[in-house]
Amino acid sequence: MQVSDPPHKSPVKRGLQVGIPVAAGVLVVVLAWLAGPGLLGIHPKSPGAPVDAQITKAVDCSVPGAAETVSFKLGGKPRQGALDSCGHGKDEHLQVLVSDDAPADGVVSVTMPDTTAGAQDLRAPIALALLVFACFCGGMYAYLVIRGPGKLALLS
Q: Which tens digit of pLDDT belongs to each residue from 32-55?
């Protein structure tokens, strides 16, 4: 039995056929982007514990690669740390983050609480790209079902 082609579709129906799957895919990707990396099972590493510190050696910002020296208490012991920063005054009090895997002795590398080293992890961009590809495939499937001939045509 021969299935006849559906009658000519209006531009509005064509727009709906393409627009609805595209809008649904874009909505899914935007919501995933706004939900953040936790949605994709990617959790940032804990930067460390905040501690109160005092600048012991201040460095002028005109020096390239400046690193100031700070003193703080970690586990009840006085420690020295290297802070990749400049422009603070000597004996200035501030809060720094000490990494959880800090060495037991020696100079510890510390950071400011409002900065992070950055993620060099490719899982988040790859996961988002796969999500976009999945939305594209789902949209194409919906488009093919909608425009299909005969009984499968939903908006024809």
A: 877 766 666 665 565 678 889 999
Our measurement of the distance from residue 79's CA atom to the centroid of its chain's CA atoms, rounded to an integer in Å, reads 33
Dist CA 19 CA 26 (whole Å): 10
DSSP 8-state symbol, 62: T
Is pTM, for the whole model, over 0.70? no
Cα distances (Å, whole numbers) of residue 126 to 22, 122, 133: 21, 6, 10
For residues 81 and 119, give the distance between their C-alpha atoms in angstroms, rounded to a whole number: 23
Contact status, residue 147 vs residue 7, Cβ threshold 8 Å:
no
Secondary structure letter of residue 7 according to DSSP: P
80/101 Cα distance (integer angstroms): 15
